[in-house]
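Lay summary. Proteins are chains of building blocks that fold into shapes, and those shapes determine what they do. In this project we predict the shape from the chain. Here is one chain we studied, written as its sequence of building blocks.
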Amino acid sequence: MNATARQARDWVPAAAVFILAIAVWQGSIAAFHIQQFLLPKPTAIVSSFWNERHTLWPAGWMTFQEALGGFVGGSLIGMAVATLVSRFKIVGTALMPIAIAANAIPIIAFAPIFNVWFNPLSPHSKMAISGVLCFLPVMVNTLRGLQSASPRQIELMRSYAASDVEIWRRVRVPTALPFVFTALKVASVLAMIGAVVGEYFGGSFNALGVLIRSKAQVFQFETAWAGILVASLLGIALYAAVALAERLIVRWAPETRDS
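And here is the predicted shape, written in a compact code that computers can read:
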């Protein structure tokens, strides 16, 4: 069986579950007379998604840019800190408790504070929120990857008089890449969540989180759910971009070749 057929076969269960869930959703509303403010019909959400596309997609694009900025910034800082911690143990002893404590705080507690630090209408506060969410998973996985290098490989490199920089570049980084991309895929989803949640506490009027909140307040719940659908699609797009980059860069990993 070729790769394309195998990929199609792997998607069949997910597609079947999705179709079943939508059918149960639509049928439950009719069977139990669920009110629209509790759960709109999928058909109504899709209709609003199409009718309001000229409003939803620009708002989604603004929020996506905020999420992307936070994703890139938080991930780069996470990888940089992991590199320092793997090289200098004392740095890890000092920074790890702070990093864990920062990520243990609910994101809704950070959002008002960051809006005070930055202009609430500026995208920087939402980028900061997304960056905080992305930082810890990327840092922890990168550190684990850098520390997973085979001692035999390192010893072999040292027998060739390789420097620490060469060992880091030729052994530790290739070993860490699968771990890094696993973290980046998690962070890509968290970044979109952080941006939308940040906008609930203040943001531009044409941002997706503000639009979802305002539509729910005026009882246009199908449009609010359509905004959630846009956020989901953009989050999936970012995840897919990271997965594609993983497939192109980490070609030697068995799970990457099989995907």
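What the prediction tells us: The first helix runs from residue 3 to 32.
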